[in-house]
Amino acid sequence: MSDKQKKPQKLKARLPRGFVDRSAADIHATNEMTAKIREVYERYGFDPVETPLFEYTDALGKFLPDSDRPNEGVFSLQDDDEQWMSLRYDLTAPLARHVAENFNEIQLPFRTYRAGYVFRNEKPGPGRFRQFMQFDADTVGAPGVQADAEMCMMMADTMEALGIKRGDYVIRVNNRKVLDGVMEAIGLGGDDKAGQRLNVLRAIDKLDKFGPEGVKLLLGEGRKDESGDFTKGAGLNADQIDKVLFFVGIKDYAQSAAQLAELVAGTANGGEGVDELNTIGALATGAGYGPDRIKIDPSVVRGLEYYTGPVFEAELTFDVTNEKGEKVVFGSVGGGGRYDGLVSRFMGQPVPATGFSIGVSRLMTALKNLGKLGQDEVLAPVLVTVMDGDVESMGRYQRFTQALRSEGIRAEMYQGNWKKFGNQLKYADRRGCPIAIIQGGDERAEGVVQLKDLIEGKRLSGEIEDNASWREARVAQETVSEADLVAKVKDILAAQAEDRRRAKDV
């Protein structure tokens, strides 16, 4: 076969695994949601800051999931000077680097928020993506737990600003120091017990899934599931298990605080942790945030090696149906805590910090479940149709389009093959255009335009199924002078908006 006869290889269009293309509807919904979150953060006195997607890999440090090699868990490349750079894994490590690098210029406490993509070089799966958006707020340089308490209040306010009503969410608070105190109290305090401590934490984290009885098995010898698979336990004795279960089973913190203080008495940090939880509870209650909104809950376990004090989690408490058809609580949409060690890595001096991170796509899923997103749907543009292709007519159509745009109305002039007018109305229908503007030679001679209310037209012509009949039907169509075009379009759009509002209220 000659070279001429060889067909060129067609490039295959493939989306990389673990990544998604985002639609206009998804982007508009995200913008709507993040604008509401931003408004709350700004109200609390936080300012935006933005760091790049790449950091030097050593700046991400031990907070990588696995740090044996630069590409484990993160996407990395080598710079021309052979330094490893990685796409950021979260928004917190880059903030720590930014604060340390600009420490002499920034005003402490430094209160900032950031929204942006983070990247995980992990095996993708259902609901697990390699690129996703987080929205963080952090206070650096405030050692007192009032900064942690305020984070929790801000998260509660954020949930309500997004339309999640009281009773459908709770901000749950625990403390790393208390958990460390409990571990020390049951004899798991030393470095040599780190592996066993991790197994205990993993068991506690399964409380929602398996309940107290399941956790009891995981704290002891182990647990066999329905399929017969056996998970080895943490190997605690009965007395140790009772103390851990008492701690994570506390439902009414006020009633159990004294007993908890007794349990951790004499440990390095346990008593301090209990005092911090008591202070957070008192500050929240004093500011009007009762336990229905901010709740001290010792079962909260968040990647605790990262945190040094209070930890918190925003949980949505309403039921949703999972892929198996079961009713389950929606669960966590964000969390955070105090991480006093993170900035200090760069500084050689202690720098206190506390922060919160929202998982944007997970929270969006929740809001869609509640019907709270897309309320401010973005209208498709008004379509200026093209009846004549000569330069003079085109100039006039363009002038109509610009007149609408200059008044803040989304508008576009038809850009396809204008000779088949039916295709223009098909386009308007598929695009969801609210109005079509039509001017042929007759209208031009009279200085008028035809306005077709496509929303009303579709409603009135519901029984007309084929496109030709719909095109001929002159329903919801009126003639106005060119001078009145913009005002009339505004009237029609306002009437359509009112109809939509009434339909929602019904």
From TrEMBL:
Binding annotation for L-histidine: D90, L91, T92, R120, Q134, D138, R302, Y306, Y307
Residues covered by the Aminoacyl-transfer RNA synthetases class-II family profile domain: 31-381
Top-level enzyme category: ligase
One Pfam family hit: HGTP_anticodon
BP term (GO), one: histidyl-tRNA aminoacylation
Location in the cell: Cytoplasm
GO cellular component: cytoplasm
Keyword Electron transport applies: no
Keyword vocabulary terms for this entry: Aminoacyl-tRNA synthetase, ATP-binding, Cytoplasm, Ligase, Nucleotide-binding, Protein biosynthesis
EC numbers on record: 6.1.1.21
Nucleotide-binding in keyword set: yes
Record SUPFAM superfamilies: Class II aaRS ABD-related (SSF52954), Class II aaRS and biotin synthetases (SSF55681)
Reactions the enzyme catalyzes: tRNA(His) + L-histidine + ATP = L-histidyl-tRNA(His) + AMP + diphosphate + H(+)
GO molecular-function term, one example from the UniProt record: ATP binding
Alphabetized InterPro entries for the sequence: aa-tRNA-synth_II, aa-tRNA-synth_II/BPL/LPL, Anticodon-bd, Anticodon-bd_dom_sf, His-tRNA-ligase, HisRS-like_core, HisRS/HisZ, HisRS_anticodon
Assembly and binders: Homodimer.
UniProt family annotation: Belongs to the class-II aminoacyl-tRNA synthetase family.
Protein name per the record: Histidine--tRNA ligase
Organism encoding this protein: Aliirhizobium cellulosilyticum
Gene: hisS
